[in-house]
Give the backbone structure.
Amino acid sequence: MKKEIRTILKNRAIAMAQEPEQKKVASAVIRVITFTLAAETYAIESVFVREVYPPKDFTPLPEVPPYIFGIINVRGHILPVVDLKKFFNLPEKGLGDLNRVIILCDEQMEFGILADVVQGTQDIELEDILTIPPTVTGIGEEYLKGVTKDRLIVLNAKRLLCDKNIVVNEEAN
Amino acid sequence: MFKNLKISLRLGLSFSFILVFMIAIILVSLNQIKVSRTMFDRIIKTNNVRLQLSNNMIDLTREVSINLRNIFLLKDSEKTLELKNRIDSIRNLYDAGFKKLEGLITNDDTMSFAIVAKIKASQDVSRQLNNKVIDLAIAGNHEESILLMNQQASKKVAVWITDIDELITHNADRSSMLFLEAEKAQDAARLFMYILGTVAIALAIMISIFLTQSITRPLNISVQTADEIASKDLTRDLSVYEKRGDEFGIMIQSFSKMIEILREQMQKILDGVNVLASSSSEIFASTTQIASGSEETAAAISETTTTVEEVRQAAQLSSQKAKSLSDSAQHVAQVSQSGQKAVDETIDGMNRIREQMEIIAQTVVRLSEQSQSIGGIIASVTDIADQSNLLAVNAAIEAARAGDQGKGFAVVAQEIRNLAEQSKQSTMQVRNILNDVQKATNATVLATEQGNKAVEAGVKQSVQAGEAIRIMTDSSAETAQVSTQIVASSQQQLAGMDQIGISMQSINQAGMETSASMTQAEDSVKTLHELGQKLKELVEQFKM
């Protein structure tokens, strides 16, 4: 047991001691947060992510569109939470221990999206992101930035933040 | 029509017919004989006597005349009186004879009556004249009296005598007439007997022929039928002759009944013979089987004999064993007493074990509770790992936002994240182990409970064992007794086995005899079978 731990630690030290690979093109790397919705893995640029928060102090709201999951209290700030599964017509799964709320923000908007499982952070080269073919429509393709070779769906965070659909019109009430 | 009369009746009729004829003949001849007999009787007994009497009367009359003459000759008054007396006595004799004669005249003889009357008249006239003559003579008037006598009296006497002669002639005539009548009657009887006899003989011949035929013909038929039956032919149909009403009809009915019965009997015999044939072949098969069976039996018996010998030896052995059993039973009694003590100790030990088991149970329950609290701790550790993970993610986000300055921090954040992941995995392992521990403790709880139960059962059983051993102690004494009895019994058994051995030998002999008998029976059945075949042939010879 101790030996195994020792080998693990040794390997890790070796891995960390190595020089990071020289980037071929300086510009083209973005850092993303990866998470799963239903059976698929999605990614979102970490630049637009303020933090990841466990779904506690959560309150469902009456009389709102179905994709508005509810509101959450994040250290004193009340933020709306959007269920992207409703948005993308994905099957429901229900709340669990591993559910997380990813809080997106820019200068104008701040809200959370409900993720099934947050996997971690990852660096993606922009070249690897393949654009969606124009034939795919009707699935909210305007919210997608593209798909990587590893079938990682990259969401367009800026588009999400700017979307008027997500803003609940108060006059509707 | 005579066919329907009984033979006895027929015979009776015939013979009575003949008998009637014979009686008729006899009666007629008897009658005729009687008629001629009367005729002859009359000739001999009446006419002859009358003749004699008449002659006698003539003699007497002449004597009177002679006496009268004597009176004249003598001329003596004394003598005359004497003669007169003599004449009176003669006259008395005459009167008696005349009276007798009158009595003999039959009524049919009118002629005789007339003649007799004539005689009487002439007699009276003569007698008066004679009396006158006598009176004159007595008176001494002889001449006048002689004159009277010669002129009148002698003539009258002559007439008288002629009258009597006439009667005699008439009598002779009557006799010859009667004789002729008798002869005539005899001739008639003879003729009648000739005719009647001839007719009777002819009838008797006819009747005898008819009778013989009527008896012999059906007899011939019967004889023929009997011959046919004798020559095994039962096909004859006698129903035509059965309608006869006489004894032959009955006999032929009996015959046809007999033939019918014979036919039925033959049919039944034929059926019976068929059954016999099949049965005898079945019996033959059975006897063959029995023969083989008896051989097997013989083999089995010899095996049994050897077995009996073995059993006998075994019985001997068991007798010895019973003796040693008797010894060991006493030993058992001692051992069971010590067993009693051991069981009491066992019960104490079991009670101690029960206490220990209870302590174990309590300990295990405590262990279970503690493992549950470990579970709580694991849950909180997992929670902490999750939160560390979240923190690491957020740290990475912050590092990304810091740009290049945050790169080192990002690495640290990644490390924290990895650690959190590792601690989570470890807690998972701990949880698994804990689960196993909990399962094990549960199993232990169950096991201790079962152990408790087992101990209780053990206590109960050891109590029972104590009881049992006590009973056994009692029993072993009995066993000792019984085993001595067994010794005696086994000796008897030994004797019995010897007897069985002898019996088996006799059974063996009997089996051999049975086998021999079966062979004989087989032969007999074979003969029976042949007999059945012969019988069948015999019966089939009959035409039916």
Chain A touches chain B through 16 residues (CB under 8 Å). The first strand of chain A starts at residue 29 and ends at 37. Chain A has a mean pLDDT of 81. Helices of chain A lie at 2-17, 84-87, 157-162.
